[in-house]
Amino acid sequence: MQYRRFGRTQIQMPVFSCGGMRYQFKWQDVPASQIPRNNQKNLEATIRRAIEVGINHIETARGYGTSEYQLGRILPSLPREELIVQTKINPSDNTREFQQKFEQSLKNLRLDYVDLLAIHGINDAESLQQSVRPSGCVEVVQKLQAQGKVRFLGFSTHGPTDIILQAIATDLFDYVNLHWYYINQNNWAAIAAATRHDMGVFIISPSDKGGKLYQPPQKLVDLCNPFSPIVFNNLFCLSHSQVHTLSIGAARPQDFDEHLKTLALLEHADEILPPILARLEQAAITSLGESWAKTWHVGLPKHSETPGDVNIPVILWLRNLAIAYDMVDYAKMRYNLLGSGGSWFPGANAANINQLDLQHCLRNSPHAEKIPAILQEAHQLLGGAAIQRLSKQ
User: What residues does the NADP-dependent oxidoreductase domain cover (predicted)?
Assistant: First the structure.
């Protein structure tokens, strides 16, 4: 394993982290008696495998159902001083409720303290204000830090870059969990800002939200050859020193194996990546046309500025991935979250696009005239039954 300094925390963070939202029994709390023995044995084997290969950062959340409780059955048997344990609590206007959730997390984990506590889901102005206002969630955590129950405070986010930048600018947080990987590089400005503030940078779900890379289409496999899409994406992310760790949402012990192939290649990333990046870019140009591939994103409105709350940038992005790289399954999965993803995946899909006048909101786009038809095409390609976030299933 390789390790990187996790910003001002000074923690030596493994470049891969063991995320805790895939191996738990349920997304809701259930009595311990309902947790199958085989499920618990698999979780414990997964954690032991992580430790065995040097992944000592174990990450979970109060919102991950039975994950914390199940981890609490194994964590006390491991050397505490060798572990980096992170949990996450959703922000709330009710700070008493926020603190109670944290205390429940600590009880579930059977620990006296956590190394990292993230405010989970600073996705919009409301959740940011709930966190940083006087007597808000941050102040609660600061008191927990004084009590020795939390070492470092961070935040996780699925929100737009401007919200992330506002949160970073407060200088209240030691680290950030955010999305950034090859197919979605929008948050680079936030990573750069985090670096200026000497914050740790944790990349959320690079293999799942980063493209369902564990089930890649053949075209993507061919473009990333001779490496798997997982290894390519890991190399892409970790070739940037500003990135400190990537989450592996392991569901079983062997799920680490493909990722571990990345380690021996890291020092050669500057040689390995350019030809693959060139192939990926050319495939997009060939499939989409050069003008569209390079400028489709220019001048697009936010979903909040669009009639019907339609999330035009996300819809066009997903359509591009489906056409350029055959990532249809991934694009459908994300597209059908629109309308039910809340602040975690906001905006509506294009089901009613032919009833909306988009002329004004598209006035700054060089492709304004053709985008309405492209949105209709995207809905025909990707539309299906609405999908709920995992935590709501």
Answer: 27-167
Query: What is the predicted pLDDT for the residue at 386?
Result: 60
**Does residue 367 sit in the same domain as residue 246?**
no
Do 322 and 261 share a structural domain?
no
CB-side exposure of 377: number of CA atoms within 13 Å?
A: 11
Residue 240 sits in the same domain as residue 362: no
3-state secondary structure of 14: strand
Q: Residue 122 gets which letter from DSSP?
A: -
The reply to whether 73 falls in a domain is yes
Verify that 198 and 338 share a domain, yes or no. no
Q: How far apart are CA 77 and CA 58, in angstroms?
A: 14
What backbone phi and psi angles, to 5 degrees, belong to 4? Answer: -135, 145
Beta strands in the chain (DSSP E): 3-5, 12-14, 16-19, 57-59, 84-89, 114-120, 150-156, 175-178, 200-203, 245-248
Q: Which domain holds residue 49?
A: 3-268
The CA-based dihedral angle spanning residues 218, 221, 222, 223, taken in that order and rounded to the nearest 10 degrees? 120
The tokens describing 163, both together, are: 């919200």
For a pLDDT cut of 90, what percent of the chain falls above it?
91
Q: Do the beta carbons of residue 213 and residue 168 sit within 8 Å?
A: no
Let me know: does 163 contact 122? Beta carbons within 8 Å: yes
Q: Where are the strands (E) in 157-298, listed by range? A: 175-178, 200-203, 245-248
Put residue 385 in one of left, alpha, beta given phi > 0 → left and psi -120 to 50 → alpha. Answer: beta
Helix (H, G, I), strand (E, B) or coil at 62: coil
Task: Give CA–CA dist 219/368, Å, rounded.
Answer: 30
pLDDT tens digits, one per residue of 161-215: 999 999 999 999 999 999 999 999 999 999 999 999 999 999 999 999 999 999 9
Structure letter (DSSP) for residue 310: B
